[in-house]
Write a structure and sequence with these properties.
- This protein is α/β, with parallel strands linked by helices.
- The chain has two domains: 2-97 and 289-307, Rossmann fold (3-Layer(aba) Sandwich), CATH 3.40.50; 100-280, NAD(P)-binding Rossmann-like Domain (Rossmann fold, 3-Layer(aba) Sandwich), CATH 3.40.50.720.
- 31% of the residues lie in helices and 15% in strands.
- The chain has eleven helices and twelve strands.
- The chain has helices spanning 20-23, 39-43, 58-63, 82-87, 100-116, 118-126, 158-169, 192-198, 218-221, 241-249, 289-307, and strands at 2-5, 27-30, 48-51, 69-72, 91-93, 150-154, 173-177, 188-189, 201-204, 229-232, 255-258, 278-280.
- The protein has a seven-stranded parallel beta sheet with strand order 8-7-6-9-10-11-12, with helices on both faces.
- Strand 9 (201-204), helix 9 and strand 10 (229-232) form a beta-alpha-beta unit.
- The longest helix has 19 residues, at 289-307.
- The chain is elongated.
């Protein structure tokens, strides 16, 4: 079978993952990146299309009649017209839960950065401030313990559950807001606005849907404590970026840590770029080597399962 990999660069930017595993599955053509106007041409007569963010639209599927399978190097599948793929008999499979540990880890990297202020003190030491201190310990920047703080988690899939588990280990009070009532949940489950009101840390681990688009907005933020921090490692579209920037600049909340934005790569005119106490990382939470290796393993396993007539992780 012919396999077209449309944006391998997004998975393998450092060249640290070999393509041999993919090459065992068929005649593979590796394309580093695919602009929208070249999608159909780059797919050509391929039977299998693998991509991360490339849009697989109705027009693309109509232009490439050989497509039988679309495999995603991602959990999200909003870049594929799922309904039309089903009409065409095209199987679409994602790679769920590959990044659970990595995203939960980065969530706590943000939390610890805010609460322990390691970066601030490293800069102070390198600027000679400790050398000039009259006492043995120098702590002008306030720090705080996580124990006893309330961690409100929006979305309770595998990542949300892992974040809750880690927060509990730190002695945090866990509050959950989720679309469906989870079974056997040991934590307080409540609505979004109550979760926001209680939060010292409000973190989002929900998919981007019509219902979650723009839910981080001025109304939600008005329910938060001015001392609270907000984290988004889900999808940029859940944030109204102007509302969040205005809230940060006016001190309505203390800080925001974001790994995703509405437009990626980041637009130079995003209102969050210069917002106060806003830390932005370039969509890296999913990117540790072990995580990306696991991702490729899942994508290849999905193809093998489909070839054997038993598709797994099918989303349509």
């Amino acid at each position: 079978m012919k396999i077209a990999v449309l944006d391998w660069y997004t998975v393998n930017i450092s060249g640290d993952i070999p393509t041999s595993q993919l090459e065992e599955l068929g005649d593979v053509r590796i394309i580093p990146l695919t602009p929208p106007e070249e999608t159909a041409a780059n797919i050509g007569d391929a039977d299998i299309v693998l991509c991360n963010k490339v849009l697989i639209t109705k027009e693309v599927m109509d232009a490439c009649p050989n497509i039988k399978y679309v495999g995603l190097f991602a959990t999200g599948f909003n870049n594929v017209d799922i309904a039309y793929a089903a009409e065409k008999g095209i199987t679409v499979c994602n790679a769920g839960q590959y990044s659970t540990d990595a995203v939960a880890q980065q969530t706590f990297a943000y939390i610890l950065d805010r609460y322990s202020r390691i970066r601030d003190y490293d800069i102070a030491v390198k600027n000679g401030e400790w050398e000039r201190s009259p006492a043995f310990s120098y702590f002008p920047v306030p720090t705080a313990e996580l124990a006893g703080k309330t961690l409100s988690i929006v979305g309770f899939g595998s990542i949300g559950r892992k974040v809750a588990q880690i927060g509990s280990a730190f002695g945090m009070n866990i509050v959950v807001s989720t679309r469906t009532q989870p079974k056997d949940c040991p934590y307080e489950v409540t609505d979004l606005y109550t979760a926001a009101e209680k939060a010292d840390v409000l973190t989002f681990h929900c998919p981007l849907t019509d219902k979650t688009a723009g839910i981080i907005n001025s109304k939600l933020i008005s329910h938060m404590k001015p001392t609270a921090m907000l984290i988004n490692t889900s999808r940029g579209g859940v944030v109204n970026e102007k509302d969040l920037a205005d809230a940060l600049n006016s001190g309505k909340i203390a800080a925001a840590y974001l790994d995703v934005l509405v437009k990626e790569p980041m637009s130079p005119d995003t209102p969050l770029k210069g917002a106060k106490n806003c830390v932005i990382t370039p969509h890296t939470a999913w990117a540790p080597l072990e995580t990306r290796e696991r991702l490729v393993d899942i994508v290849c396993s999905n193809i093998k399962a489909w070839q054997n007539g038993c598709p797994q992780n099918k989303v349509n």
